[in-house]
User: Fold these one by one.
Assistant:
Number 1:
Amino acid sequence: MSAFQKETVLSVRHWTDSLFSFTATRDPGFRFQNGQFAMIGLEVGGKPLMRAYSMASANHEEALEFFSIKVQDGPLTSRLQKIREGDIILVGRKATGTLITGNLIPGRRLLLLSTGTGLAPFASLIKDPDVYENCETIVLAHGCRQVSELAYGEHLVEDLRNHEFFGPLIRDKLVYYPTVTREPFRNRGRITDLIASNQLFEDIGQASLDIETDRIMLCGSPAMLEELHAMFAARGFVEGNHSQPGHFVIEKAFVER
Ligand SMILES: Cc1cc2nc3c(=O)[nH]c(=O)nc-3n(C[C@H](O)[C@H](O)[C@H](O)COP(=O)(O)OP(=O)(O)OC[C@H]3O[C@@H](n4cnc5c(N)ncnc54)[C@H](O)[C@@H]3O)c2cc1C
C-alpha cells in the first residue's frame, strides 16, 4: 500500500495573489485530530512532491480543506496553485502534530494565536464541538500584513456564525481578533506586541493573560514563534507535548529553507 492516497480536488478558491484554499475528497480511512497536519502534494515527474499541510477542515467533515500559500518559485506551490476541480492530489495516510487539545492542561480560556497560513490548524479546531465544551472562551487571533490576507479567516468565522449548530456557540464563546501590520485596520500591530502590551486583551474587553486560566496554541512564522515562546516561558508557562501536557503548544506554519 502506498504511503499516499490519491484524492480529487472538489473546489479551489483564490483569496489573494499569494493565498488560496481548496477542498478535496477524503478517504474514509483517513483519521486525524483537529489541529493536526499531514503530508500532501502532487505527482511530479512520476514522483510524489510532498509538503506538510495542516488540515483546515474538521475531522467530522466529509471533505478535506487546506489553506495554502503560493510561493512563486516554490517546488510544490508554484504547481499546486494551478490545481482545478477534478485534479488529483496526494494525501499522506498519517496525520500528526502538537496542536491538539490533549497536549494542554485543562484551562478556561483558549488563545489560538496565528500569523499567515498558521490560521489553518485553528480553522479545524474552531469547528470542534469539544473545544467549546471544554473552554469558556476561545480567542482566535490572526495577524497578517494586509487586510486582504484576512479574507479566508473572515469568511470562515462568518460562515460559522451563520451555521445552524455552531452559530450559537460562536456567538457565546468565540472572539475573533484579526490584526494587520501594514495597512490601516480596526486592529493594528503584531500579535507579539499586542500581547506584550496587553492591548489585545483591552481590545476584546477581557482579563489579562493569566497562567491559571489561559491555555495557548501558536502557529506562525519562525520569528513569531520564537518571540512568543520566550515571552510565555518568561511568565512561567510550560510548553506541552504528547508525553506531558502544558500551558502552551507550538507548531511552525512553515520552515525557512
Ligand atoms: C507543520 C507544518 C505545517 C504546514 N502547514 C501549511 C499549511 O497549512 N499551509 C501552507 O500554505 N503551508 C504550510 N506549511 C508549509 C508547507 O509545508 C510548504 O513549505 C509550502 O507549501 C511551500 O511549499 P513549496 O514547495 O512551494 O516551497 P518550500 O520550498 O517549501 O518553501 C519555500 C519558502 O517559502 C516560504 N514559505 C513556505 N511556506 C510558507 C507559508 N505557509 N507561509 C509563508 N511563507 C512560506 C519559506 O520562506 C520557505 O523557505 C506547513 C509547514 C509545516 C512544517
Number 2:
Amino acid sequence: MVGKYDADRLAHPGLSTAVIEQDRGGGECSYWACIPTKALLRSTAALRAACRLPGAREAVTDALDSTAALRRRDGFVSR
Ligand SMILES: Cc1cc2nc3c(=O)[nH]c(=O)nc-3n(C[C@H](O)[C@H](O)[C@H](O)COP(=O)(O)OP(=O)(O)OC[C@H]3O[C@@H](n4cnc5c(N)ncnc54)[C@H](O)[C@@H]3O)c2cc1C
C-alpha cells in the first residue's frame, strides 16, 4: 500500500514512479476521513459560535439543518 505521504520518498530525481490506486486517487484523508469530517463539523461549529455571540444568536431561529450539512460534506468529497 502506498499513501500520499510515501510519494515524496518514491520520487527520487532521475527515477520514474507509477502509483496504482485501488480506489479514488487521493486516499482516505480526501474522501473518507479528514476532509469530510471537518466539512461536516464546520456547520455545527459555525452555529455554536453564532449562538454564543450576542447580536448573532438572536438571528438563529432554528436547529441545524442536518440534510444541508451532509450535502455540504458530500460536495467536498465528490470532486
Ligand atoms: C475519521 C477520520 C478523520 C481523520 N482526520 C484527520 C485530520 O483531521 N487530520 C489528519 O492529519 N489526519 C486525519 N486522519 C488520518 C488521515 O486520514 C490518515 O492519516 C491519512 O489518510 C493517511 O494517509 P496515507 O496516504 O498514508 O494512507 P491513505 O490515505 O489510507 O492512502 C492509502 C491508499 O492506498 C490505497 N490502497 C490500499 N491498498 C491498496 C492496494 N492493494 N492496491 C492499490 N491501492 C491500495 C487505498 O485505496 C488508499 O487510497 C483521519 C482519519 C479518519 C479515519
